[in-house]
Amino acid sequence: MRNNEKNKFMWRAAKLCSTLLFALFSFLYLYCMQSDLLACFQYILSDGLTSYSPLVGGLVITFLLVFLGELLAYVWALPMQFVALSYFPSALCLLFLTMWTPLPGGLVAPLHGWVWIGVILFLGSGCVYLLKKYASFIVKDKYSFTDIWSNLVFLLLLFLAVGGLGNTCDTLHRQLRAERLLDEERFDVIADLRTYSRVESHTYSAIRALALANEHRLGEELFRMPQCEGAKELLVSERDFLSHDSLDYKFYGFWGARPGKHVQEKPDLFFKMILDRHLCDSLHRSDVADYYLSSLLLDRKLDQFAAEVENYYPLNDSLPRHYQEALILYKRIRTAPVCVYQNESLEENYNDYLQISREKSAPVVIQNKLRKAFGASYWFYYYKQ
Q1: What is the reported pTM?
Q2: How many Å apart are CA 102 and CA 114, to the nearest integer?
C-alpha cells in the first residue's frame, strides 16, 4: 500500500511538472513570439470584424491546450516516466495554429509543415501505442524523482519542434509588428526598431520611412537599414498590408494625397507634385521635402538632388547626414557640380571609404569591411546595392 501511495504521488508530481512547463512555454510562445501573427490570422479569417487580444488569446489558448493534456493524461494513464506524452496532441495543436503564412488572399501552410506534422504524429502515436502495450516490460514497479528526466527530454523535443516548425520568419514578424504600431500611431517605436536582416519586406521599409519622417529623422537615418528597391520602397498599396486594410488611409494621410497607378512608379514625381501644389499640411511640408530628396537619392539621381536640395535646406552643418554624404559624393564624381558642399570630416571619411574599396583583397572581404565601417552611409548604398 505504501509503495502504491508513493507511486501515485510521484505520478502526480511528474504530471504537475509537465503541466507547468508546457503551460509556461505555450503562453510565452503565444504572447511574446506569435501574438502579431495570430492577430493577423484572426483579422483575415474574420474579414476584419474581430480583433485579437494577445494576453486574453494567449491565456485562453493555453488553458484549452493544458485542459486537453490533462484529460489525456487520465484517459491514457501512462506511466510516470512518459506522462509528458499526454501533451503531444496539445503541442501539435499549437504547431497547427502557428504554422500558417498570411498572404493578401488568405492563409497558406507550407508543404514541409504538413509533412513534419505527419511524421511527428506517426512517431508520437507509435510511442503511445508501444508504451500502452509493453509498459509492464520497460517500467519499474517503484518510482523515484530521477525517473522524471525522460519527461523533460520529451517536452524539450516538443518545444523544439513547435519553435522550429511554427512560422517564426523574422521578416514577416517585423512587418506585422510595424503594421500594428502604425495602426497605433507609435512612430517613435517604429523608428527605433532594430533590424538584423539585410533584406526586409517592402512594406516594412515603407512604414519605417514614414515613421522616420514623422520623427524628422528621414534624412539622418534612412540608409542605416539596407534599401533594395529604390524609391519604390517609400510607397505601398492597399494589398501590401496584411493585418489592417485601413492602414493605407493612415499611411497616405501624412501627405494629403495618394498616388495614381502611373505616378506610383515615379515616387519623386509624386512628392514633388505634393510640394508644388501645397497638398500637404504646412507642418509636414519639410518632412515631405525629405521624402522627395530621399526618393532622388534612392534612385541615385544625384544631379537632380544637387539642383533641388538648396530649395529646402541651407548648405551648412544643419543639413541631414545622408544629404551631406550625397553632396560629398556628387562633388567627387562631377567635374562641374551645380552646388558645392564643404565638410572636412566627411571628406576624410569618404577617402577612407575609397581606400578600403581599392584594397587588393577578395571582393567578399572588401564588402564586409565596407559594411562594417560604412554600412549606414549613403556611399555604401550608392556603390554596393
Answers
A1: 0.83
A2: 16
Most confident of 112-121, 257-266, 343-352: 343-352
For the beta carbon of residue 161, count every other beta carbon within 10 angstroms. 20
Per-residue confidence (pLDDT) for residue 323, from 0 to 100: 93
Q: What pLDDT is stored for residue 134 in this prediction?
A: 58
Domain boundaries, the chain: 2-167, 169-300
* Residue pLDDT, tens place only, 179-220: 999 888 899 999 888 776 566 788 898 999 999 998 989 999
Provide long-range contacts, Cβ within 8 A and 24+ apart, for 102-110.
Answer: 102/37, 102/40, 102/41, 102/44, 102/172, 102/176, 102/242, 102/243, 103/242, 104/239, 104/240, 104/242, 106/44, 107/41, 107/44, 107/45
